[in-house]
Design goal:
Elements: E1 3-4, E2 13-17, H1 18-24, E3 31-33, E4 51-58, H2 63-68, E5 70-72, H3 74-81, H4 99-108, H5 119-122, H6 124-162, H7 164-172, H8 177-208, H9 210-232, H10 244-250, H11 258-279, H12 288-294
Parallel strand pairs: 2-4
Antiparallel strand pairs: 1-4, 2-5, 3-4
């Protein structure tokens, strides 16, 4: 609740979504009139009697609900929408991921004759788009790891070639091939660990400060556009405005999934480790005598 209270004790009370109230330009204590577009046959489409007093404004994390939903007293609903109007019941679960199990349990009950629909089906297109977006982001992250691994592999191969004289000397004084490989593997592991640790810290800092970063970016872009317009097109300076999309992004809450953060950090460590292992596979292609002869 962002204003007022969730008070539906009286039949003429109504609680509006935050965005809907802003579009209607009403607040707590003001009156709205409902236009019934669907309902039973015993109600009329237009009526001046359906006046409700706004008792509160609510705000959720879903923009469509904020802009298109309201709550009224159930008796008022039956009166103004008709007793034959379709009635939907919402069941809120403590764990939203248990929706399939809850529906299966309800369908097995012989005392309930109803059609059940979970939140996944109700917003199928919306959650489907989010799932595709998430999969594409995971694919992008995987491609980044592949590119990093290839770069580290080429860098390690060049390092092995540049250090071939030191490698030959280590081998000549008795160092085993696996011990020499360990040096390069540990270097790749250290590089991956430092990069993963720094990336996780930076990502977490950005995630918990998205509002500040987007607002700062909006101000920077505004003043940059303002300065460019002032220099090259001064007559249109009055039309320069701050991009409102940044404010929308700033209000999107950031949620951190610990398991995914750990998995990404592990991939960031494993990819350079595997690249270093592959690069040091043939660390002594040339014999010690050939290397020292060339030196």
């Amino acid at each position: 609740m962002v204003a007022g209270s969730f008070d539906l004790s009286e039949p003429e009370n109504i609680v509006l979504g935050y965005t809907l109230a802003r579009q209607l330009r009403v607040g707590v204590g003001q009156t709205v009139n409902l236009l019934v577009l669907s309902g039973g046959s015993d109600v009329s489409l237009l009526s001046g009697d359906r006046n409700f007093v706004v008792t509160g404004l609510f705000k959720t994390g879903y923009a469509d609900i904020n802009s298109a939903y309201c709550f009224i007293n159930i008796e008022a609903g039956q009166k103004y929408f008709g007793k034959s109007a379709e009635v939907l019941y919402g069941i809120k679960l403590k764990n939203s991921q248990e929706d399939a199990r809850a529906i299966a349990s309800l369908e097995k009950s012989n005392n309930i004759e109803a059609h059940f629909q979970s939140w996944r089906e109700y917003n199928k297109s919306f959650f489907g788009a989010l799932r595709i977006e998430k999969n594409m982001l995971l694919l992008l992250v995987a491609i980044i790891f592949v590119v990093v691994g290839i770069n580290i592999y080429n860098g390690m191969r060049r390092l092995v070639f540049e250090r071939r004289s030191e490698i030959a000397i280590l081998s000549a004084i008795g160092a085993e091939n696996k011990d020499i490989k360990t040096i390069f593997i540990m270097r790749g592991l250290t590089t991956g660990a430092i990069g993963a640790f720094a990336g996780v810290i930076l990502g977490l800092l950005i995630s918990v400060n998205t509002e500040f970063l987007f607002n700062a970016a909006a101000r920077v872009m505004y003043w940059l556009q303002y300065c460019v317009t002032a220099v090259f097109n001064h007559q249109n300076l009055m039309y320069v405005q701050e991009n409102s999309s940044y404010a929308v992004y700033a209000n999107i809450p950031a949620r951190i999934f610990f398991r995914e953060v750990v998995m990404i950090a592990l991939f960031g460590i494993i990819s350079p480790l595997l690249a270093s292992l592959a690069a040091s596979k043939n660390v002594l292609k040339m014999t010690v005598a050939e290397v020292l002869h060339n030196e």
